[in-house]
Amino acid sequence: MIFGAWNYPLQLTMIPLVGAIAAGCCAVIKPSELVPCSTSVIVRYFREFMDSECYRILQGGPDIAMKLMEQRWDHVFFTGSTEVGKKVAAKAAGNLISTTLELGGKSPTIVDDTANVDVAARRICWGKFLNAGQVCIAPDYVVVHKSKKQDFITSVKKYILEFYGEDPSQSADYSRLVNSRNYERVKRLLESGGRVIFGGETDEETRYISPTLLDGVFFNSEIMKSQNEIFGPIMPILEYEDFPALLDTLRRREKPLVTYFFSTNKQNIELVERELSSGTLSVNDTIQFVCIPQLPFGGVGFSGQGGYLVLVSTVCLYTPAPVLRGRLQRSGWVSCLVSTVCLYTPAPVLRGRLQRSGWVSCLVLQFV
User: Fold this and answer.
1) What are phi and psi of 77, to 5 degrees?
2) What is the pLDDT of residues 226-248, one digit of tens each?
3) What is the pLDDT of residue 331?
4) Of the listed 33, 54, 70, 102, which one is catalytic?
5) Active-site residue among 37, 48, 54, 136?
6) Most buried one in 35, 92, 137, 232, CB count within 10 A?
7) Does residue 25 carry a catalytic annotation?
8) What are the pLDDT digits (tens) for 30-70?
9) In what helix (H) or strand (E) does residue 286 lie, and over which residues does it extend?
10) Can you tell me the distance from the alpha carbon of 264 to that of 353, in angstroms, rounded to the nearest whole number?
């Protein structure tokens, strides 16, 4: 059973389906009801090209989703909020159904005093305001070393203008909030505290909120109290001086889907790898790790469980069953033993190079 999401309705519905097909499974998908235009396209081509004996598509809202969860599925993929994810997990537990939950959480972005601030600002700006911030792996907030904060703010402003122009509402590259409910939610966050130092423009009719920078934000500020991601084009910018103290603060918060860290200090990078737990650690870049199909994509704890993308989706749906064949002889038996080890959850680490010309990555699968 695959529950799609509204922010990337095609990708987040079809990638688990591809994994299911590759694993030899039948599947039912339920696209999000919040994006009817995209869903109508998925339904049209799904029914035209997919074998209805093996693959079905259903439409509906939360009531249909909960009824579907009363069935005895072999596995459930769910992408969405932590609150709904808990309900899906509770329903699945009643029938001992395994789940892959891709949820969210507030993914922190740290810029230390050794980072190339201009490059960091460009990459964070792109990752944050992509799809108007409606990306589960978007940098949720940025914590910058006090000595680099003003330079960082100046650079982010520069790149907002470069990416979206003087009036982002006229940019073909800038999105709108998906519906009125999410527009009102993000607007309330914008008005909840902090000082707007860039942007802040809104338009209810078109559900437009401009790329916005907030200063004067602290970990106890209203916008930071909730463990849910902002999921909108608001970038709170915090500052720090004591790096170990910052890591201690982050460690006390719920585990996010991603931790982003910009630094050229090898010791600090290794410290973040060791001290912070998240679905993925991305060093010196944002978003790019999800473009690598061989890497698992998923959260840990509050941000989800399990992982997917094409290869990993196939592996998590394929359950090897050991077969022991013995010989009917009194002298004894000969067996072929196959064991599967499933004790550790690898967290991918993407390391990029702080150069404007591009990025080079070294992938490390670290057991956490």
Assistant:
1) -100, 130
2) 888 999 999 999 999 999 999 99
3) 54
4) 102
5) 136
6) 137
7) no
8) 999 999 999 999 999 999 999 999 999 999 998 999 999 99
9) none
10) 8
Q: Which residue has the tokens 């001992």?
A: 96
* Cα–Cα distance for residue pair 289/100, rounded to 1 Å: 19
CB 251, CB 319: distance < 8 Å: no
- Quickly tell me which residue has 């892959």 as its tokens: 100
Q: What's the confidence (pLDDT) of residue 367? A: 30
Contact between 103 and 85 (Cβ < 8 Å):
yes
CA dihedral over 230, 309, 84, 302, signed as positive or negative: negative
The alpha carbon torsion through 27, 31, 33, 37 (nearest 10 deg) reads -140
Burial of 153 (0-12, 13-18, 19+ CB in 10 A): buried
Contact yes or no for 101/89 (Cβ under 8 A): yes
99 phi and psi angles, rounded to 5 deg: -135, 150
What is the residue-averaged pLDDT of the chain? Answer: 88
pLDDT (tens digit per residue) in 248-288: 999 999 999 999 999 999 999 999 999 999 999 999 999 99
pLDDT at 361: 38
Identify the CA nearest to 123 among candidates 231, 262, 4, 246.
Answer: 262
53 is catalytic: no
